Amino acid sequence: MSDPLPPNDRPARDNIDVFGLTHVGKVRTENQDQFLIASLHKTMAVHSTSLPREELGALRSPSRGYVFLVADGVGGVPGGQDASRTALRAVMDYVLRAMDLYVQIDAEVEAEFLRELQKSVERSHEAVLEAGASDEDKEGMATTLTMVCIRWPRGYLVHVGDSRCYRFRDGQLELLTKDQTMAQAMVDAGALSPDQAERSGLSHVLYSALGATRAEPYTLTTDVRWDDVMLLCSDGITKHVSDEEIRAALARPASAEATAQALVDLALERGGSDNTTVIVGRLHRPA
């Protein structure tokens, strides 16, 4: 087996500032967005021992990585909130079991690890379909899902729908996902310009979503560096906040909490037409 990917002075907990926030908005009566921030650890559960408890020491390892996840229940059909909840629970159950197989991710197993993350989203799609089929009032329920798993110094992304993941690095904002909408598909085919697509009314019509007829997970493996800022958000943010405004917000030397709050506040000030959800993760270089 090849050598593990270099740890490059793996970040300590104090180097990572992450915060998530969700708001129902000013128009919707129900918040159908969900988010999750989780750290990954190895743990030992001691059932019985002759040792005094105080001699056991820490029974949980330092963080082996992080998982960030945003899911946005599709509006216009019943069960959007249940769809996003079902998707999140199914993904995390699968990821928890799959992580046991990857104590160390090296170059040989990296592709396999990403496939396991993709399988977690495919299983989530099945879970949403099953939940919708079991309740006629929720038939057709669907959700987006965007997940990032960070195992220093690599990041693994799986994405379905039109929630987004951005990375801010060296003053530049990069969109790591592509909206799975009819408008974006027409742009990709050369049938519409980006401006025409935005005005077409198809910019929020999904062709791929968990629980829908089609769910086509997009995957990406990328590097993670000191001073990177990751942003995951539902379209309740991007309907009202431009990429340049997102870049400016992430460029400010503010905490993850303050940055997340500023983005949600801006979306609300401009109408808050949808549920708004955001996760901001900052990786601070050690002093």
Key terms:
5-stranded antiparallel beta sheet, alpha+beta, Phosphatase 2c, domain 1, 23% strand, 7 helices
Describe it for me?
This protein is α+β, with helices and mostly antiparallel strands. The protein has a single domain, classed as PPM-type phosphatase domain (Phosphatase 2c, domain 1). 29% of the residues lie in helices and 23% in strands. The chain contains seven helices and ten strands. The protein has helices at residues 80-99, 110-133, 182-188, 194-199, 235-238, 243-251, 256-269; strands at residues 16-23, 33-40, 65-72, 145-151, 154-160, 164-169, 172-175, 218-223, 229-233, 276-283. The strands form two sheets. A five-stranded antiparallel beta sheet has the order 1-10-9-6-7. The longest helix has 24 residues, at 110-133.
